[in-house]
Amino acid sequence: MSEPTRRPVLFSGIQPSGSIHLGNYMSAMRSFLRLESDYDCLFSIVDLHALTVRQEPATLRRNSLELAALYIAAGLNPERSIIYCQSHVPQHAELAWILNCFTYMGELSRMTQFKDKARQHKDNINAGLFTYPVLMAADILLYQTDVVPVGADQKQHLEIARDIALRFNAIHPGTFKVPEPDIQEETAKIQSLSDPMKKMSKSDQEDSFVAVLDSPDVIARKFRRAVTDSETEIRYDPENKPGVSNLLTILSVLGGEDMESLVSRLAGHGYGELKQEAAEVTIETFKPIQQRFRELISDKDYMAKTLQNNAERARTLAGRTLRRVYKKLGLYQP
Ligand code: TYM
């Protein structure tokens, strides 16, 4: 990142709060791979965000390391991009505090993800769940980020990050870059296999999502059981045929076949074949990632060193922005 030919900055994060699934892979990881060579990238394991719902410590620790290994196994380069745990860079929490003082209760209470999570976790509607988008704004603004590739469910959080940056800059000009979201329409919202009216989610029951680390048998079984509809026609129509359209999206994107030719190729075939093809292409996509993942996860030293080095690089960059913010605000810095 300190090279003289500075590229624009890309930041994104994934929570280590469960199994990384096909939705995360299709909208987030694939975009990271597509954009990695054009940007100076930071890919974070956002472990502090995961604390907004109760986590079992040993599971959180394992999920964090596994997510780091998955980023690398998927093809991201930790020598070039910065792959690191959010909690290793204290500036995230420090900037989040400052940005809390520039964020209104009213705008946070409009966040649909807060409303959903508060409904799901009635016994633990903590303040962290409420200020979650502020920590996310801090993640992004710390690195003077230009672009943030995410799925559709993060759009509102990106908007608030931009609003906070603009508000801060209006009082203290030239502090933050105002980031742009990168949301790819076709993969922005991969639906649950068991309830195609809902998005695929790590926190739902096992059969509703395909995990990147699921075995071929499990992947095949989950696709076989995917909910479709009572018709027989294979047609792309997300409004009326959400289950079939979701399977078509998965097959078309992972198989690299455009939707129109895919639908005409499958005309007259049954849903069973659609499910089988979707399962096969998913298995093929994940096979090399799983193989590389197994090598990485058994090399504990390499993983630990890589995460330590990368966190160090992130701290250097984050420190620059935070010092600038403290100075602008008038916090005494001897
Ligand atoms: P998370 O961990 O829920 O999801 C990681 C990424 O996957 C996308 N995604 C999906 N895309 C398509 N279909 C789905 N069913 C689906 N489910 C999840 C998400 O949009 C996301 O891009 N708040 C974020 C993590 C975060 C972050 C950030 C992201 C923290 N700080 C800064 C970007 C920038 C989250 O919970 O993602």
Q: Please give the order of strands in the largest beta sheet.
A: 1-2-3
Considering the protein shown, what is the CATH homologous superfamily of the largest domain? HUPs
Name of the CATH first level of the largest domain: Alpha Beta
- Percent of sequence in beta strands: 5-15%
- List segments where confidence is low: pLDDT < 50 over at least 5 consecutive residues: none
Element order, helices and strands? EHEHHEHHHHEHEHHHHH
Number of distinct beta strands: 5
Provide the helix percentage.
40-55%
Give the number of domains. Answer: 2
Per CATH, what is the topology of the largest domain? Answer: Rossmann fold
Question: What is the correct CATH architecture of the largest domain?
Answer: 3-Layer(aba) Sandwich
User: What is the first-to-last residue Cα distance?
Assistant: 28 Å
- Note the quaternary state here: single chain
Hetero groups in this structure are: tryptophanyl-5'AMP
Give the C-alpha Rg: 21 Å
Class computed from helices, strands and strand pairing: mainly alpha
Helical segment tally? 13
